[in-house]
Amino acid sequence: MQLSTLDIIVLVVYFAGMISVGFYATRRASKNLDSYFLGGKTLPWWLLGISNASAMWDITGTMWFVYILYAYGMKAVFLPWVWPIFNQVFDAVYISRWIRRSNARTGAEWITTRFGAKGGELSRGIIVLFALISVVSFIGYEFQGIGKFCKVFLPWDLSPNTYAILLMGITAIYVVLGGMLSVVLTDFAQFLLMALSALVIGAIAMMTVGAGTLDQVTPAGWRDITFGWNIALDWSALLPAMNTRIAKEGIASMFGLFFFVMVVKGVMVSMAGAAPNYDMQRILAAKSPREASLMSSIVSVCLVPRWILIGGITLLGLVYVTPEFRKMGDNIDFELVLPYVINHFLPAGLIGILLAGLLSSFMANFSATVNAGAAYLVNDLYKAYVNPHADNRTLVRFSYLASVLILLAGMGIGLFISSITSITQWIVAGLYGGYTAANVLKWYWWRLNGHGYFGGMLVGLTSALVVPKVLPMVAPAFHDPTYSFPFIVLFSAIACVAASLATEPVDQETLKNFYRNVRPWGFWKPVHAMLLKDDPTIEPNRNAGRDLLNCGVGICWQLMLVTTPLYIIFRDLRGTLISLTVLVVTTVFLKKFWYDRLEPHNIITDNVVS
User: Fold this and answer.
1) Residue 607 above 50 pLDDT?
2) Residue 57 in contact with residue 208, Cβ under 8 Å?
3) Which of 122-131, 146-155, 349-358, 449-458 has the highest mean pLDDT?
4) Is the peptide bond before 84 cis (omega within 30 degrees of 0)?
5) Which end of the chain is more exposed for a tag (fewer CB within 10 A), N or C?
6) What are the boundaries of each domain within the chain?
7) 499-538 core/surface letters (b: 16 or more CB in 10 A; e: else)
8) Which whole number is the average pLDDT over 351-378?
9) Which of the given ranges, 21-35, 256-270, 290-304, has the highest pLDDT on average?
């Protein structure tokens, strides 16, 4: 791909600006660990929310979303639930408040508030291991994605791995120097750039493609969001090779079952709470539990421009790139959509802005992941076991080293990964399947102890490595790793319960302090009875029904934030009006039954409201 001098200047200025932010934030970030990893817990909730959304706007996922929308039509809006993207709804409704009340620095440190210092050693160790595996896996995932992206879009004849190493190295400069503060500030700038790029592409797509053209280049039912047991889209007359590709993926033929498994998996993962990555880090960095909830709520709103970008690229691709796909036979290369759109529809200068915006989506995700992973190495390993009396200067210096170590480990994984899809499937189905059972039970069942948590996580992680490989051998129809999730969770849950019942419960003081501070609902009656002896006025949390109802309504609300911009881009009046109507109704509902009932800013623990 050839870039003009103006485009190259735009990219150079962009990279120089991002690095400058790192130098600017160095002094403030170097005060102590809270400043380096949590921004001193002084950042406003809206800025943390924008940063969190920017970190989720990764380039690899964006390219995948373009493909699934192209292939499956509007039914593809459900497929991102495999991550699941609606975990932000559960976080906003109640999980973020529960997490923030701990006042911890990392997810592993939070575990100590649940199981105590003595009983929490094993559980803290296993969550650190999970966090590091997760972070390194995500960096490997990004390594593959950004390398392939740069190979297609940048004009210099370098290998994908070389591009990935160079870009990760540039991003690491401001991450290492400025810590979370530089990450959040650059995320904000990158979000503005990404949003501008999205609006430009969306406008170009709507002005270029006629209102009735979409129906001519898509199969019947492509606009329809509803589905049955299978997705009945027939590409035979338009792009025969697409039918072959969809059949090979195996989702369309059993979409009803896949959807059911995906929703159950998504609800369980969401109820387990934020994973120990940049998402939890931003929750812990919020000023208060209320602001942690507000931060999570704005993430879905901030991702609306991403769907405008995806819709615009897909629309242009369907009309102008499909003829190129027909020439490829069965070997369709969907990476052609983005370069074709950029080459044919953007003038000089705007190409540089769009490329900077797309590179921003990578850098935001990557920088947040590195910073979150380093926090575990420093706070939960180095400070906890190696040098507990280290001063702030020493800890911050080790934080620099930890960020570099995390980066090198992720690059190493990336060099040995041959497929983006394979590592994505393992992360969302295998790795998070091993995480789910223990982390659901820690919130809702008082009897889970450190041994049960450790045993469940260990069995879960082991199952995550084994089940996805064994299940297709037993049942070939279930070759997608998503179908492995129920088995991984079941094995992990059995280990949690068995190990907990075979060992002593968590000590009473730890349980009472956790319940008093966090105020969870679920099976906590024995702990509530203990607290009644100390404080006869304490009330149990009876908000489970309201919270879960708000989550259900919130999922519909979030889905409309996806469908509305897409239907607008596709100029589907009926779909737009229905989406907007549902969006307004669900917004009013959540305003009354969620927002109006959030605890005040100055209350960390509330005995009545949760």
Assistant:
1) no
2) no
3) 449-458
4) yes
5) N
6) 5-417+541-597
7) bbeeeebbeeebbbebbbebbbbeebeebbebbeeeeeee
8) 72
9) 290-304
Cβ–Cβ < 8 Å for 111, 120: yes
Distance between CA atoms of 58 and 61, rounded to whole angstroms?
6
* Cα separations in angstroms, 513 against 288, 403, 522: 18, 34, 16
**CA end-to-end span of the chain:** 54
- Residue 523: helix, strand or coil by DSSP? strand
Nearest to 604 by CA among 516, 538, 523: 516
What is residue 155's DSSP assignment? S
Quote the CA–CA distance of 257 and 559 in Å, as a whole number. Answer: 20
Count CB atoms within 10 A of the CB of residue 238.
Answer: 17
Does residue 291 carry a pLDDT above 50? yes
Class of domain 5-417+541-597: mainly alpha
Cα 13 to Cα 6, 8, 17, 155, 163, distances in angstroms: 11, 9, 6, 17, 18
CA nearest to 60, candidates 159, 135, 139 = 139
Tell me the pLDDT tens digit for each residue of 31-53.
555 555 556 677 899 999 998 88
Note the pLDDT tens digit of each residue in 551-602.
999 999 999 999 999 999 999 999 999 999 999 999 999 999 999 999 876 5
In this structure, are residues 580 and 565 in contact, taking their beta carbons and an 8 Å threshold? no
Beta bridge partners of 445: 523
Q: What is the pTM of this model?
A: 0.84
Query: Are the beta carbons of 525 and 547 closer than 8 angstroms?
Result: no
